[in-house]
Amino acid sequence: MRVGIGILGGGVVGGSLANKLLTERDIIRSKTGLDLHLVRVAVRDLDKARLFPAEYVTDRPEDVVSDPEVQLVVELIGGLDPARGLVLAALDAGKPVVTANKQLVASDGPALFEKAAANGVSILFEAAVGGGIPIIRPLSESLAGERLTSVMGIVNGTTNFILTRMTDEGSPYAEVLAEAQRLGYAESDPTADVSGADAAAKAVILAGLAFGVWVDLDHVYSEGIEGIQPIDIGFARQLGYVVKLLGIAEVTSDGVSVRVHPALVPTQHPLAAIRGAQNAVFVQGPAVGELLFSGPGAGGEPTATAVLGDMVTAARELLADAPVAPRVRIGAGEVREFGTVSTSRYLRLEVEDAPGVLATIAGTFGEAGVSIRSVWQEGRGDRATLLLVTHAGPEAAHDKALDQLSGMAAVRQVAAVMRVVGEPV
Amino acid sequence: MRVGIGILGGGVVGGSLANKLLTERDIIRSKTGLDLHLVRVAVRDLDKARLFPAEYVTDRPEDVVSDPEVQLVVELIGGLDPARGLVLAALDAGKPVVTANKQLVASDGPALFEKAAANGVSILFEAAVGGGIPIIRPLSESLAGERLTSVMGIVNGTTNFILTRMTDEGSPYAEVLAEAQRLGYAESDPTADVSGADAAAKAVILAGLAFGVWVDLDHVYSEGIEGIQPIDIGFARQLGYVVKLLGIAEVTSDGVSVRVHPALVPTQHPLAAIRGAQNAVFVQGPAVGELLFSGPGAGGEPTATAVLGDMVTAARELLADAPVAPRVRIGAGEVREFGTVSTSRYLRLEVEDAPGVLATIAGTFGEAGVSIRSVWQEGRGDRATLLLVTHAGPEAAHDKALDQLSGMAAVRQVAAVMRVVGEPV
């Protein structure tokens, strides 16, 4: 019942995992009946101090993949290359792969699944979305019989940490980002997180599992949190909302839509309560209603736990010599143009405080085909701040209205635009 | 790829499921690659109107089990008998079983798992806990590598509905129960729900999967919600708590403890936000931190979805002719006497408002080995209401203090006692 394990990547997750395999081998065996035997760990820098003995270390990942003692490959390098080549080589050698690599799965998912199936093995990636939260398996197995309609989540801990701090303290983005970097919640180059790119990859994976359609990352509308101002977080709160960065995957009769953007979420929505670096995924379907999965979205230990759960499944599959893990089934499906997707918007406009201005602005929205749900105006002498929340309408119609507003003399500035998800009770 | 399905029980869940199999067969096939073919449904009353055509109906469940066309048996009768005999017969015939029967799994779990393993098939029961919420599979598979320390949940929708209404409206238990019965949230005989027995069965299952130890139902301390008064819900709120009925499974070096009782939960705890008939399970472990799974805890459609997810796994296993579902591994383990379990308590005492009474009461707790965390006293002439929240201490020590209090002349009445989980921030 012994299964040889090779780990690619000795960073936070890889180190936690190697350490867990070495120190908790007996517990894992008694809980699962499997002897997960660490063979080798490929690292970039042989001289760096590690959580596990140096005898396991190599700097040649391809040797780990080809080692005959290694029966199961765990890829924790991240990024597209060289991870892609190593994963493909492992699958070609008939070795199951467990990975936490959201970029690779998002970009190459269908090709990887096909390669795995052709070699009669699995590629498992529970840790690629939501860190330690079990979400991949519930979507692909427990909910296999449900016609899910939407999967929506806070899937990036860095941005949720930053937004939570901005909300609690009213501090500007740049200041909170610097704090997050100091505390280790944000990378020194935070672009992938704050731009929404990380969340976009995860949303593609969630959509693929929920709807069986793999959306190209190029077709994902993605907007980050860099432009969010504390004043709008404050206004949102007054209107009954919290600002969150959401990854949203939806399916309608018009096709599948995947997008990432900041959104005003009603304070009583389950996602509004997810604070700090926590992650959560909110799933809806006609039969199952609403499900929420929440927990730690990142970190070495939670992620290593998710990886280990997949390793147990992969090891069982090796021993059974039969497909134990569910095969991901990807079909063809319409991907919606973002312009046709229906959203509500929050806008903050700086306008002339003169008679007729509000009527003109309202008229502009009406002409574009967008109706206004609520308006709040605060005058200050000859100018006023106008907050608008619209009803749902196509993105293209919103953009048209926005274009017109930007060109109006009475509108000094379109100071903020964010989307709104749901209505406060 | 066709798998013949026999359903035992044509009630709310069985009807939903049969209807789903007939109307969504193509969708299930395209999502899973499996053709789940409904063969027969055993019902108690042949003449009752059903959601599915009468041609599928029989009133002889044993014929469904023995039908050679039936390859997979779904047990939705509930209760111990005749469900137990039918499930065992199916397993003996080498047919995998999917069940939503928490009583049967809680009482006979290890015997059922053994019987299933001996016949090389699975018994799956995702729907037995938390209705449509995927929790069984995450515990037994995704978290297989984690040394979980506690699983705590709101696992009974009826009692959570009643407590939520009592909280919102300040109405007495009996009145809200009657309303719940009118609305279909409580049975005409609500005993199993309100007494905590239903939650106890679910807590046994959660403990078994999380810790690998199956606790006999007789060793589960279980207290229902019948005695809860709106005044204590109000006081709890003032102190920063919400009152919930919790199923709690914990493991420490002293062994496993499973219990069900009302508890004061801090308002900012994730379980405090679970309202109405919703269910939620809160899982803790050293590596994974805190996970929350929430969703609809009952209802035909959500439960049928959970059953269907299990059917897909069982069908894949049949076709692979190898163990696809994880085998539940139950070992020996210490079960803690409830008296040794450490809890905090909330008490409401009606006392004489005289000098020295508070000191005497505090002394009584001290002698019993329980220390007091906070005290709130409201005088009304010669008597006073005293609210106490203690620090954690062994149940036996609490009981000793309570005994002494009850015998004190200055204590007119111990008006309420509830346990407290966690501290408000």
Topology:
The structure is a homodimer of 425-residue chains.
Chain A: E1 2-8, H1 12-23, H2 25-32, E2 35-42, E3 57-58, H3 61-66, E4 72-75, H4 83-92, E5 97-99, H5 102-118, E6 123-124, H6 136-142, E7 150-154, H7 157-169, H8 173-183, H9 191-194, H10 197-211, E8 221-222, H11 230-238, E9 241-252, E10 255-266, E11 278-285, E12 289-296, H12 300-320, E13 342-352, H13 357-368, E14 372-380, E15 383-390, E16 393-394, H14 395-406, E17 411-420
Parallel strand pairs in A: 1-2, 1-4, 2-3, 4-5, 5-6, 8-10, 10-17
Antiparallel strand pairs in A: 7-9, 7-11, 9-10, 11-12, 13-15, 13-16, 13-17, 14-15
Please characterize this protein's 3D structure.
The structure is a homodimer of 425-residue chains. The N and C termini of chain A lie far apart (55 Å). Chain A has 3 domains: 2-131 and 300-320, NAD(P)-binding Rossmann-like Domain (Rossmann fold, 3-Layer(aba) Sandwich), CATH 3.40.50; 143-294, Dihydrodipicolinate Reductase, domain 2, CATH 3.30.360.10; 338-420, Alpha-Beta Plaits (2-Layer Sandwich). The relative contact order of chain A is 0.13. Chain A is elongated, with a radius of gyration of 24 Å. In chain A, strands 7, 8, 9, 10, 11, 12, 13, 14, 15, 16 and 17 form an 11-stranded mixed β-sheet that branches. In chain A, strands 3-2-1-4-5-6 form a 6-stranded parallel β-sheet, with helices on both faces. Chain A is of the alpha/beta class. In chain A, 37% of the residues lie in helices and 27% in strands. In chain A, helix 4 (83-92) packs parallel to helix 5 (102-118), helix 5 (102-118) runs parallel beside helix 10 and helix 7 (157-169) crosses helix 8. Chain A has helices spanning 12-23, 25-32, 61-66, 83-92, 102-118, 136-142, 157-169, 173-183, 191-194, 197-211, 230-238, 300-320, 357-368, 395-406; strands at 2-8, 35-42, 57-58, 72-75, 97-99, 123-124, 150-154, 221-222, 241-252, 255-266, 278-285, 289-296, 342-352, 372-380, 383-390, 393-394, 411-420. The interface between A and B is large, with 58 and 59 residues.
